[in-house]
Amino acid sequence: MTAQPSSADIVAFADLDDTLFQTLRKLPGADPTTLTPATVNTQGEPHSYCTPAQSALLEWLGGRGVTLIPVTGRDLTALGRVTLPFFSWRVADHGLSILDPAGQLDPVWASQVAAALQDLQPALSEGHSLMTEWAAAAGCRVTRHQAAGLPFMTVVKHPAADPEPLWALRQQWAQWLDHHPNSPSLHIIGNANNLSLLPRTLGKRAAVEYLRTQHLAHARLTLGLGDSVSDLGFMAACDFALTPQHGQLLRAVLAADLPQQ
Predict the structure, then answer these.
(1) What is the CATH number of domain 10-96+203-255?
(2) Segment holding 176, helix H or strand E
(3) What is the pLDDT of residues 191-203, one digit of tens each?
(4) pLDDT (tens digit, 9 = 90+) per residue, 86-133?
(5) Contact call for residues 162 and 204 (beta carbons, < 8 A)
(6) Same fold for the domain at 10-96+203-255 and the one at 120-199?
(7) From 3.90.1150, 3.90.75, 3.30.870, 3.30.420, which CATH number describes the 120-199 domain?
(8) How many angstroms separate the first and last alpha carbons of the chain?
(9) How far apart are alpha carbons 29 and 49 in whole angstroms?
(10) Which has fewest Cβ within 10 Å: 46, 171, 202, 238?
(11) Strand boundaries in the chain, DSSP class E
(12) pTM for this model (two decimals)
């Protein structure tokens, strides 16, 4: 894929999974003939799909010369399995990695991330070790992810996607974090069958703000697209926000008893 940087006045920062596409498990009853493959698995087979509405959204954005920038929790390898056309900047690893239009890591951002991660290594390692012990007793799987050459995130999953043990593990992690000196610098996020501990101050919002000020200052309009509560930060850094009908974020808003003033 040839990089084609755009100088469009409109920039859309978009989360990927469950915003622009999702797996068939989350599309019960959908007509397969109406779905468009959007990712492949490690064997190169279609894995996630766009609904007609998501395909229309992508067509609408592309047809108006909008610069579309993915802002995803996927690592660089998983981002490479997304088959949608991205020609500009790309944000991966929950914001800790930024690729330029040529597909190279932005050196300034990578340097900032590496410096900040150095200070957080003791707390991240402690949180990982504790969760490894707790998760084994709960029958859950733990993986650790790196960015800028350093560990930055611990992810917990249940093999049967059972939310109850994950919720109990989240409570344990939260109790530990509440009493930790680095509590303001770390946070726990959960979505579907994922529970993660990662830096709060190096996330998607910080990456979007960096791109807006350092590389995309020409944009007259920015859009933030996301489905989960953890996307709120970077969506709030944009001029307007867009969220899918059945996403975690909209469910949370509808379930809340919000005052009208």
Answers:
(1) 3.40.50.1000
(2) helix 163-178
(3) 778 899 999 888 9
(4) 999 999 999 999 999 999 999 999 999 999 999 999 999 999 999 999
(5) no
(6) no
(7) 3.90.1150
(8) 50
(9) 14
(10) 171
(11) 10-14, 22-23, 36-40, 46-50, 67-70, 90-92, 97-99, 141-147, 150-157, 186-191, 194-199, 221-225, 240-242
(12) 0.90
46 φ, ψ (degrees, to nearest 5): -55, 135
Nearest to 169 by CA among 197, 211, 143: 197
Task: Please report, for the chain, the start and end positions of each structural domain, with discontinuous segments joined by +.
Answer: 10-96+203-255, 120-199
Q: What are the tokens at 244?
A: 């899918």
- Kindly compute the dihedral angle of the four CA atoms of residues 185, 236, 144, 118, in this order, to the nearest 10 degrees: -40
DSSP state at residue 17: B
Residue with tokens 């799987």: 141
